[in-house]
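Training component of the fellowship. As part of building independent skills, the fellow (R.M.) carried out the full modelling exercise for a liganded target. The chosen ligand was nickel (II) ion. The inputs are recorded below so that the supervisory panel can assess the work.
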Amino acid sequence: MLFDTHVHLNADQFNEDVEEVIKRALEAGVENMVVVGFDRPTIEKAMELVEKYEFIYASIGWHPVDAIDMTDEDLKWIEELSSHPKVVAIGEMGLDYHWDKSPKDIQKEVFRKQIQLAKKVKLPIVIHNREATQDIVEILKEEQAAEVGGIMHCFSGSAEIAKECVEMNFLISLGGPVTFKNAKKPKEVAVEIPLEKLLIETDCPYLAPHPYRGKRNEPSYVKLVAEQIAELKGLTIEEVAEATTLNAKKLFGIN
Ligand code: NI
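Fellow's submitted model of the complex:
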């Protein structure tokens, strides 16, 4: 039983064969997944998927790269949708300093507004961080995000930062990069962060694990992430699968 906490089955890369991809996920032991929408079209598609498949849940928010496009109406719309019983988190949200489409101050404002929304509707948040760790940690503290907690999605920082996030009521989600031979930091995080604070994800279609690196990722590959964590922690894959599934269900309020 595996829980893939971050999928983009709503991405165009799955337009042709999403049903087969979902079938392969079920065959690989993936019991649940959270499909993440981060703008109008991907949120709409995420909602279609949760209506169609009972084991799929949604997280909805606005991506920092496109922060400059988010209007007050968009935020209001996300708030309205968040009362849907299968919307289990707000995000992905955060900061991305790799791309400069949206200026930093606008990214920060849109990030803060979404944290405030999540606190209002009492849902955990899903954090996207690219080259912005310091500012993210600062904003999470200032906005008292610990009140709702959430997920550091596809975490790539140090074990030290991971521990700081855990103290702020966040779970650390590891994805494909933990399987890369040269990925020192994610492997350290897998070793040092206790199992009850870890989640697994694919972030598909991006970041496929070894040996599929560079190819289209899909939820069935989340098993490879669980296997790698098990190996690093000296546990069985069943132990990792069971614990990370339980962590996810607890966070998302899924019985
Ligand atoms: Ni994502």
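The panel noted the following from the submitted structure. The beta strands are 2-7, 30-37, 56-60, 87-96, 125-130, 150-152, 170-174, 198-200. The chain has one domain: 2-252.
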